[in-house]
Amino acid sequence: MTTKPKKIPTFKSEDEERDFWAEHSSLDYFDLSTARRMTFPNLKPTTKTISIRLPEMLISELKVLANKKDVPYQSLVKMYLAREVAMERRNGYSAGPYLAVAEEPAPYGTKKKKK
Q1: pTM of the shown model
Q2: Are 29 and 23 spatial neighbours (Cβ–Cβ below 8 Å)?
Q3: What string of DSSP letters covers 21-80?
Q4: What letter does residue 101 receive in the DSSP assignment?
Q5: How many domains does the chain have?
């Protein structure tokens, strides 16, 4: 049984609208049977600047790889991170060798001493 969607009220301010939608379901105000999938090709994902400490040797190697691929090294880092996150998501977020570190890992490019 389909019911007719309710009419969306006119709001005097964004605060009033925010309060309204916090207490009401949008499903009551839209007819989902007429919904269409939309694409937004010019929409850019939001980004946040972070600071991360990496060994200088790792950064140097990333820059060499990025140069060979003709991309900025920071873009290459984002591609690598996105690929690893997608792989973890597909595999069910298993605790791999990099996630289950019980002790401080050896610096990049060095081997850990055996106990």
Answers
A1: 0.46
A2: no
A3: HHHS-GGGTS-GGG------TTPPPP---------HHHHHHHHHHHHHHTS-HHHHHHHH
A4: -
A5: 1
Cα–Cα distances in angstroms (integers) from residue 99 to residues 53, 65, 95, in the given order: 17, 24, 5
Residue type for position 104: E
Take residue 109 and report the two structure tokens written for it.
């490019």
Buried-exposed string 28-54: b where 16+ CB fall within 10 A, e elsewhere: eeeeeeeeeeeeeeeeeeeeeeeeeee
User: Range of 68's domain?
Assistant: 56-90
In single-letter form, the type of residue at position 102 comes to A
* pLDDT (tens place) for every residue of the chain, 115 residues total: 567 888 999 999 999 999 999 999 988 888 888 888 888 888 887 888 999 999 999 999 999 999 999 999 999 999 999 999 999 888 886 655 555 444 455 555 555 555 5
Does a structural domain hold residue 105? no
